[in-house]
Amino acid sequence: MPTKTATQEFLKGLWEENPIFRQILGMCPTLAVTNAVINGLAMGLATSFVLVFSSFLISLIKKLIPSQVRIASYIVVIASFVTIADRVLAAYFWDISKALGPYVPLIVVNCNILGRAEAFASKNKVGRSVMDALGVSAGFILALLVLSSIREVLGSGTFLGYRVLGSWFEPWTIMVLPAGGFITLGILMAISIQLERKRKER
Amino acid sequence: MSLSSRMVAVLTSIGLLSGGFLVTVGFVTKERIAFNKKMEIERAILTVVPGASGGRIVYEEKDFTVYAGQDKAGQLAGFAVYTSGAGFQDKIVLMLGLDAALSRINGLAILDQKETPGLGARITDEGSFLVYWEGRDFSRPLSLRKPPAPSPESLSASEVNTVTGATISSQAVLGIVNSAREKLLKLNQEGKLSLEGDNAN
Prior knowledge:
The structure holds 2 protein chains of 2 kinds. Chain A has one domain (6-201). In chain A, 67% of the residues lie in helices and 2% in strands. Chain A is built from 8 helices and 2 strands; from the N terminus they run αααααααββα. Chain A is globular and about 60 Å long. In chain A, 42% of the residues are buried. By secondary structure, chain B is an alpha+beta fold. Chain B has one domain (44-200). Chain B has helices at residues 3-48, 167-189, 195-200; strands spanning 54-61, 64-70, 76-86, 91-98, 105-112, 143-145, 159-161. A 5-stranded antiparallel beta sheet of chain B has the order 1-2-3-4-5. A two-stranded parallel ribbon of chain B has the order 6-7. In chain B, a hairpin with a 2-residue loop joins strand 1 (54-61) and strand 2 (64-70). Chain B is elongated and about 80 Å long. Chain A binds chain B through residues 35, 64-66, 68-69, 72-73, 76-77, 79-80, 83-84, 87-88, 90-92, 94, 98, 101, 155, 171, 173, 176-177, and chain B through 3, 6-7, 10-11, 14-15, 18, 21-22, 25-26, 29, 32-33, 36, 40, 112, 114, 116-119.
């Protein structure tokens, strides 16, 4: 494997290894909570918090953990950070916590996080693992923002709760329903594959 | 140290550390979360009981709480009932506001629901649904008007509107309100809703 600089570790998460469009990981929260921009953003930030801190900690203690129990150890670490995120949201961002409902506790099973722990943090130095986690987080937030912006504007005629399309616009209710999530994700994924193909040809 | 005892040691210490950490976080946030829940109910009481400046519990059982809304002078301004029932997808939790004589609905607020966005979720819509509950007669069971009437005035006193495209959710709300009505009238007959009675406790 060619060695990468820290910046490259960060940048690869945005596009080359974008968790949603390239790796297709963590689809459950992606589809479930992107019906409004604020929910997508909150989910993105909560997931990033868990991802960065668990990558940091796992990379720090990787030598202490016997490989037979590594997955169990990673899950305990991840679940702890998820519980912190859940409690803090409920305490200080009540409305967002209510809107996200069970999806915050479900960050535990977001395969992105365990995926990064297993594929990267358990094999790399702390600094590099944090850069990698930050990059993947940024890629995840970016993808959720694109998805939720499209769905909220078309599905409710609003952006972050503010009306952006006039009263002439009849909201496409399907866009805020699960089906709209699949349709939007499918189209975005097709576009990203096309872009990637063009990039490789060059 | 053998491998198996090392595995036990590592997992135990990770578990203990994480447990200890979470207890701290839970302890720090507990009060604030309880406060958020209380504020939400307080706000709902003030919305559905006009003239109230606060409320306190006069009757409580599982998923059914009656609050007495009091004005600034401590007089009874009306009752607010926190109740819930099955909706189309999940529980609908609502706050029903009544006048002091339990004869009229003053307002209705939906506190929690997971109905279909754009369809059933329109039961949270002020203009097309909730406004039609204000001023309804509470001495008889309520019924739904379908197709919906164009304005609150064109409904009879014990009728409420159905939301177009959300018949099931509208019926669910109606069912919750009507069963709360029966419970309330029974409690009232038994004299369990008076402010004074509660003071004695």
